[in-house]
Amino acid sequence: MKAVVYLGPGELSYEEVEIPQVGPGELLVRTRAALTCGTDVKTYRRGHHLMEPPMLFGHEFAGDVALIGEGVTDFAEGMRVVAANSAPCRSCFFCRRGRHNLCEDILFNWGAFAEYVRVPARIVQTNMYEIPLELEYEEAAMLEPLACVALGNKAAGISPGDTVVIAGGGGPIGLMHLQLAKHAGAEQAVVIDLKDSRLQLAQQLGATHVINPEREDPVAAVKDLTRGRGADVTIETAGLPDVWKMSLELVRKGGTVVLFGGCPTGSQVSVDTDRVHYHELTIRGVFHHTPKTVARALRLLSSGMVDASRLISGRVPLRDTQIALEKVMAGEAVKMAIIP
Ligand SMILES: [Zn+2]
Ligand SMILES: [Zn+2]
Fold first, then answer.
1. How far apart are the CA of 173 and the centre of ligand 1, in A?
2. Which of 27, 61, 109, 160 has the most C-beta neighbours closer than 10 Å?
3. Ligand with the closest atom to the CA of 35
4. How many A from CA of 217 to the centre of ligand 2?
5. For 131-145, what is each residue's pLDDT tens digit?
6. Residues 199 and 321 placed together within one structural domain of the fold
7. Same domain, 196 and 84
């Protein structure tokens, strides 16, 4: 089969590799659509502590079951399916406490940018679903990032009438947070981003206000919108220390800051202790997804509560995966679909 192999930062190759073997409990999926993800872009740009090249690349995909491993009963050949990129062990310290996203033995799966992708048994059992009829493959492939966003949305604890700010929010993750914030009843949904094209899309998806920091000071602008108080909730989705810092300044007393974007390893952010203490800020780090939020993400997609199709800027064949990643890096695309 043809596949994209990650060779290190800035280096991908499109080559012929063996179709993965399928063991007991596993499935082979014929990839119909894969999506570029912020993690892929980061890895392509600067490497990733979980990725050891050379390795198959990409992790958001949907397709058809091509082969069934021994003992699999929930899926049949030809079925349209989508799977998350990981599954927890369900037995470690964290899994037993319901914190499946922090699992000590989490199993990841890569290789979505290929004609076929193998799905390990644990993911088949825990985080794999038949695609509802109303969803296209590329919409279903949004399952994994949306599952992460659903976890962040829960941590945000948005109440009807709230002012929610999404900082660095013009990317796919921020735009999904925006849609969920609206559904949670946010009255004012503010998106901050440096790219006007992204801010336009945010407005189309329901942002009541957009702020480009190159033109106005976000902290002052949010204060103006909230009678000087600050936002009820701020969700940081840029993964930049400066935006983390700004997020803490954007919330009101008693407000919640969800730090969703992972910064480069080793980053440090200093906090104003008076703000955190006297203003009783709630600061929540959020990482990855749980089986519950994966299931929720599928419901959000199939009910149309999250419009995934608007976040896909274009489609390219498998051999042009590198071009797709570069388009996202350049800010010319929100998310690209790779169609093998
Ligand atoms: Zn992803
Ligand atoms: Zn575990």
1. 9
2. 61
3. 1
4. 43
5. 999 999 999 999 999
6. no
7. no
Mark whether 186 and 116 lie in a shared domain: no
Q: Tell me the average pLDDT of the chain.
A: 96
The CA 181 to ligand 1 mean position distance, Å, reads: 20
Ligand nearest the Cα of residue 43 is 1
Amino acid letter at 101?
Answer: N
> Are 112 and 26 contained in the same domain?
yes
Identify which ligand lies nearest to the alpha carbon of 86: 1
Answer yes or no: do 232 and 330 share one domain. no
| 293 belongs to a structural domain | no
3-class secondary structure, 301: helix
Question: Residue 111: which CATH number?
Answer: 3.90.180.10
Give how many domains the chain has, as a whole number. Answer: 2
pLDDT tens across 37-48, in order? 988 998 999 888
**pLDDT category, 62, cuts 50, 70, 90?**
very high
Residue 100 C-alpha to ligand 2 middle, in angstroms? Answer: 6
| Ligand approaching nearest to the C-alpha of 107 | 2
Residue 158 within any structural domain of the chain = yes
**In the chain, what percentage of residues exceed pLDDT 70?**
100
- Among 47-56, 121-130, 274-283, 322-331, the minimum mean pLDDT is found in 47-56
Q: 0.90 cut: is pTM over it?
A: yes
Say yes or no to pLDDT of 49 above 90: no
Does residue 176 register a pLDDT over 90?
yes
For the chain, what percent of residues have pLDDT higher than 90? 95
Q: Are residues 224 and 134 located together in one domain of the fold?
A: no
Structural domain including 245 reads 147-285
Bridge partners for 315 per DSSP: 337
Domain assignment present for 94:
yes
Q: Are residues 186 and 173 in the same domain?
A: yes
Residue 291 lies in a domain: no
